[in-house]
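Q: Hi! New to this. If I give you a protein sequence and the SMILES for magnesium ion, can you show me the bound structure?
A: Yes, paste them in.
Q: Okay, here:
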Amino acid sequence: MAHNHADTIYALATPPGMSAVAIIRISGRKALDVPALFAVKPGSARVARRAFLKDRDGNILDDVMLLSFTGPASATGEDVLEIQCHGSAAVIDDILTILSQHTGFRAAEAGEFTRRALDNGKMDITAAEGLADLIEAETSLQRRQATAQMAGQLSRPVGFWRERIVRLLAHLEAMIDFADEELPEALRREIDQETAALCAALEQALDDQNIGEIIRNGLSVVLAGPVNAGKSTLMNLLAGRKAAIVSDLGGTTRDVIEVKLSLAGIPIRLADTAGLRETTDHIEAEGIKRAEDEIKEADLVVLVIDGSQPGWHDIARQMGDGISRPSLLILSKADKGRIEQPDARDFEAISVDLRDPNSIAEIEKALKQHLAPLNQASQTPIITRARHRQAFSDALASLQHSQTLSFEGDIALIAEEYRRAASALGRVTGHIDVEELLDHIFSRFCIGK
Ligand SMILES: Nc1nc2c(ncn2[C@@H]2O[C@H](COP(=O)(O)OP(=O)(O)O)[C@@H](O)[C@H]2O)c(=O)[nH]1
Ligand SMILES: [Mg+2]
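A: Thanks. Here is the predicted structure of the protein with magnesium ion bound:
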């Protein structure tokens, strides 16, 4: 992305296509000159006003509403103008064309408005991530998590921990400067207690069963089992549409077919896979390999086996043994009767007729039971991405390492671990400069001298 902040950027902020109203956003130094380009007088900031935009020849382009914001009190921190025009391809095209003809204006690149907001300190990285998640949110759980992150659910504790760590660092640096003096006992104790409290807080945040990532990405549920068991039938039943081809020919499903759905408010990526069997068809073999890969990564494997066939016990045991992920057994074709066999192993399974739409209630109930533990977070988790988790783990490792070092000889090493921990947390929000915070703390810091 080219970041030329000197340019005034513009973009259609609403989806393209016909609509009642469309919004064109303009941000940058010349944003407030835009009304003049359409023969309209400038108006007051933050007051919506109606205007008739005109082209160079004085022809009316559209009857619009204009809304302007003067930087830095705007979404991007720059001067911003929003044109609410009619959602007509011709109107939008004409307005954008006129803007492009003036020097200093160019079409925005993807994400550039948010990038400017970030660079101008209007939001930090976690808020920008939250915003991206909000735009992509498909379930209310995802929306809640995204808005919480936008509102500082992650950046607030991270900022708070980081400041506490740097405060400890400031104490240590002061002691390093007065190396001939002993670290006072009270200060030692305070540092120990603070470090232990910070470790506990980080451990607690990390111990979240990855719920944040799961909510964001969706839980992966994989349908697996032998050919002809009814996996694709189950997929279509849950998806509420014919997403996968169902046939009584074994080996019909070859590739992984994925649909997104929401169960008990939990976003799910449901994957239908090729039936597991020995085959000489190399395309089917590739499909089976993909199925096996999906199974390895799944949050939940739903094993579908035809319960009306003798020998389902053996298949269930064999396949169940090969799956290391949590699983649920569904015995299909209950309408044909379920074969019971005395078996050493007690199978926890539900028997259903997958062709009967009424079976869905029982299947959803069983799925919810397996998925519910993932939805039991007492509060919204604060970690929503692998990069947050990595930073938290790095910070924790540094703090834990500092606890093993002694104040007698290793103050500089302890300080270095705090510095690392602070930088790791700073990466989460994009505030990586520890020195800046240190200066700030030192400026208000009394070292008793
Ligand atoms: N009677 C009966 N037939 C079923 C049931 N589930 C699936 N079938 C049929 O079994 C065949 C194989 O189903 P399909 O979903 O393609 O199996 P897959 O190979 O596991 O994906 C199709 O003809 C389905 O209509 C069921 O519960 N009862
Ligand atoms: Mg299939």
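A: The chain has a mean pLDDT of 87. Let me know if you'd like me to explain how to read the tokens.
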